[in-house]
Amino acid sequence: MTWKTSVVDIPPDGGKGGVICNPKEMSQFELERLSKQYIKQVGRMIGPTKDVPAPDVHTTPQIMSWMMDEFYWQEGYNASGIITGKPLAIGGSKRRGDATARGGVFCIREACKKLDIDPTKVSYAVQGFGNAGQYAAILMKELLGANKLIEVSDSHGGVYNVNGLNPVKLIEYKQKNGQVSGFLGAESISHQELLELDVDVLIPAAMENQITSDNAARIKARISAELANGPTTPEADRILYDRNVFVIPDFLCNAGGVTVSCFEQVQNAYNYYWTLEDVYKRLDQKMTDAFLNVYETLHKHSVDMRKAAYIVAVLRVAEAMKLRGWV
Fold first, then answer.
1. 300 within a domain of the structure (yes/no)
2. Sequential DSSP letters for 21-87
3. Domain for residue 224, yes or no?
């Protein structure tokens, strides 16, 4: 998370934490109790000028609301900026929900420009059809004009149609049935088969370690846009690089979420909220600048995109540490 915030050049540092549970098997009452108990344990360590938690896997705006409310009762004052990813009615930022996917699609757009690929003609596949994956499937069409979503998978399995799938209807089917398997007019496909099919853009948006040394040599995509955290192992990275697969690394590609969380924190701080157009424009600018900085570093040092992103991020942190006299 520190490298993620650094590579897009926003002020927060970063860390990861959470609770081991399966929220899909919990009632709303159980989720509320768990959320508030979590803040009871970490409340003394967080605050609008300390650590500011943000949503991640299986968290929702409602969960963020419960956590903010518990902080209020624990500390005795209301602070909207204690947590991000909140509903609009209590200080959330417009379009926080699609920010991760939107930032990733901005990166894909810039990659297509650099690789001389017409985005309106690309075929694409999405592994992982949760929040980020669903929005990515729609935004590839809305923002880039890509009309050929070939494959989609979730934790239950995947579906495939060489002529293309309708992302809106897929989302409706998923919401109704809890999975994409069985979608009318599509063939069944496994997670691994999805990764290895012939598409222009592969979007791993599921869990970590999906592309490994075992299957990297069979990846046919020209671009792999990592919306998930850590979907590619270090061994696979080298194989993909040698095969000219252009990888947009996770901590650049999926940084749109934390960027809009930062925007939300800024809006909370001065109690003035931006228009939707402002949020989109600022996110586009941040993600585009970050991509171009990393791409320039790639050519300067003759490395892959992941190493280039690390170079950009680490140098910024190192400069800040030197200026503060830490080293």
1. yes
2. --GGGS-HHHHHHHHHHHHHHHGGGB-TTSB-----TT--HHHHHHHHHHHHHHHSS--GGGSSS--
3. yes
Considering the entire predicted model, what is its pTM? 0.93
Q: What is the signed CA dihedral for 113, 118, 121, 127, rounded to 10 degrees?
A: -10
Residue with tokens 């991640």: 56
pLDDT tens digits, residue range 141-162?
999 999 999 999 998 899 999 9
Q: Kindly state whether residue 326 falls inside one of the protein's structural domains.
A: yes
Catalytic residues: 16
Q: What is the DSSP letter of 121?
A: G
183 conformational bin, left if phi > 0, alpha if psi -120 to 50, beta if neither = beta
C-alpha pair distances (Å), 154 with each of 212, 237, 241, 277: 19, 23, 27, 31
Q: Which tens digits make up the pLDDT trace of 266-323?
A: 999 989 999 999 999 999 999 999 999 999 999 999 999 999 999 999 999 999 999 9
Domain count, the chain: 1
Indicate whether 246 belongs to any domain. Answer: yes
* CATH number for the domain that contains residue 240: 3.40.50.720
Give the domain extent around 287: 1-19+94-327
Rg (CA), the chain: 20
